[in-house]
Amino acid sequence: MSTIAKVFTVLNLVFSLIVVGTVGSILSKSEDFKAKWETETAAHAATVVAKDAIIAKESGDRANFDVQNRTLTNQLADRTADLTTANASIETLRNDNNELRNSVTGAQTSLKTIETRLADVDARNKELMDSEAAARTASAQAEKDKLDAQDDRARLEGDLKRANEDIAAKEAQIVALNDQLGNLSAERAALVSAGVDIPAIVGNAVKEINGQVSSVGDDFVVLSVGATEQVSVGTPFHIYRGNDYIGRVIVDDVLPDSATARVTLRNTRGLKFMAGDVATTRL
Question: Is 58 exposed, middle or buried (0-12, 13-18, 19+ CB in 10 A)?
Answer without folding.
Answer: middle
